[in-house]
Design goal:
It holds the Pfam family adh_short. The protein is α/β, with parallel strands linked by helices. Helices cover 42% and strands 13% of the residues. The longest helix is centred in the middle third of the chain and has 23 residues, at 157-179.
């Protein structure tokens, strides 16, 4: 029986190469994306060797994510691999229709609602894995305050992004604790600084850095290989609650290892997730 993998943000960059490689390895795919046209094009590229389903979802919208969860749980019975890949960084502060800062909503809250909503499908698999795309930028999550994440007092794109990436690791670690009794693993992956359009629209210094040093960055293919390794390597079948870089366990920040912060973020996210009902 073929395994089923769900991947968010599969239509470009790291996500696209991750989806292509998982398909090559025989995984049926659930493609969760905003852009239907790009998702359909990816389905054509993958072909008929595996099954590819498309679920339209805007991760920044609580209602959209809840609708996606309902559609997925209605049409699928098992998920063996969940790859929380989608993410963004934006130059100027933007607020979602739910009243939440866009970066935090997209990079953390959307994946939180999606993942927790699909737990029963993950439990239905023999040994499911969750891979959460993080970043070494989490080391720069200065003045991190859980209660301020949804509506920060001051805005700088790189700082806000760093806090969202710290949230990714805290969430990944808390998932590993809560889901370990069910044989489900949860790990975070730093893909390195990738040569793509990501981050190119940031503030002056951020944008300049991304563009000037782009020739020295990793390719999306190389970054995707790290995700694939953590998602599929047999030797990692029972490894959970770790942070990986270059396909190896790596050091994360002291904040990222803070269990109290992880539990606090989980409770805060639950409150936000109930803020809008569909």
């Amino acid at each position: 029986m073929r395994k089923t993998a769900l991947i968010t943000g599969p239509t470009s960059g790291i996500g696209r190469f991750t989806a292509l490689e998982l398909a090559r390895r025989g995984y049926d795919l659930i493609l969760v994306a905003r852009n239907e046209a790009k998702a359909r094009q990816l389905q054509l590229e993958i072909g008929d060797a595996v099954s590819t389903g498309f679920i339209q979802c805007d991760l920044s919208s609580i209602g959209s994510v809840k609708q996606a969860v309902e559609e997925i749980t209605t049409n699928y019975h098992r998920i063996d691999l969940l790859v929380n890949n989608a993410g963004l960084i934006v130059q100027h502060r933007q607020t979602t229709a739910d009243g939440i800062e866009l970066t935090f909503a997209t990079n953390h809250l959307g994946p939180f609602i999606l993942t927790t909503g699909l737990v029963d499908l993950l439990k239905a698999a023999e040994s499911a894995r969750i891979v959460n795309l993080a970043s070494a930028a989490h080391f720069f999550a200065f003045r991190y305050r859980t209660a301020k994440l949804a509506n920060p007092q001051h805005y700088h794109d790189l700082l806000i992004y760093s806090r969202s990436k710290l949230a990714n690791i805290l969430f990944s670690n808390e998932l590993s604790e809560r889901l370990a009794p069910f044989g489900i693993t949860s790990n975070a992956v730093h893909p390195g600084t990738v040569s793509s359009s990501f981050g190119g629209n940031g503030n002056g210094a951020t944008s300049w850095f991304m563009k000037y040093f782009k020739p020295f960055f990793r390719t999306p293919e190389q970054a995707a290989a790290d995700i694939i390794h953590v998602a599929t390597a047999p030797e990692l079948n029972a490894v959970t609650g770790r942070y990986f870089a270059n396909s190896k366990p790596a050091r994360s920040s002291a904040k990222a290892k803070n269990r109290a912060l992880a539990r606090e973020l989980w409770a805060f996210s639950e409150v936000l997730a109930e803020a809008v009902l569909i």
